[in-house]
Amino acid sequence: MNASATSQHALLIIDDHPVYREALGEALAKEFSTLGVAVKTASNASEGMTLVDESNHSWIVLLDMLMPGLSGLAGIKVFSSKPNVAHVVSISGLDSDAWEPRSVSAGAALFLSKNNTSAAIFKRIKTLYNDTQWHEPQSPLNTSSEYRLTQRQLEVLTLISMGHPNKVIADLLEIKEQTVKIHINQIFKELRVFNRTQAVLKAQKLLIPTVTPKDL
Length: 216
Fold this sequence. Notes:
The chain is of the alpha/beta class.
């Protein structure tokens, strides 16, 4: 993989621990610079989503599993749903035997332990860049131009599909519960449905990434 082929590719490290985040970011930036991959950092999921949503990069997201706000399995689902995120890699000091299968089931490409060295982390992530067939980002509703959902609405819809109530969605996305209700009303209006179950089923029919029916 040469620099010209990866000039639009980037790695995003999301971790609330500033020392670990910056140290890992500097180490990986040095390693990935030879591949033409930009390395960015964010202190929380909300900051990370802004970086992803406002860029033209194709991203691999390295997501800390245990942070305030959106993280963990829900974080994997939300970031995986974004059309310009190729992979989500979960990283944590939590027990690997317990959390690796959960992370992979939620959609993570890899689970990495924080006990690994930066060189080992680079080596594991590099395999994803080597193995991935990169494509231009597409609209999450690319199967039907009739419907238009914003990135935030897609995030809310993904969390609805996981069975989360409005209060939990508000906490995960760090927004007000009333704002969640507004997004849900807009989702219902745009998809022309009347309840949460219909919205999830309609989303699945339209092939919105990662959205699958749950017991709502």
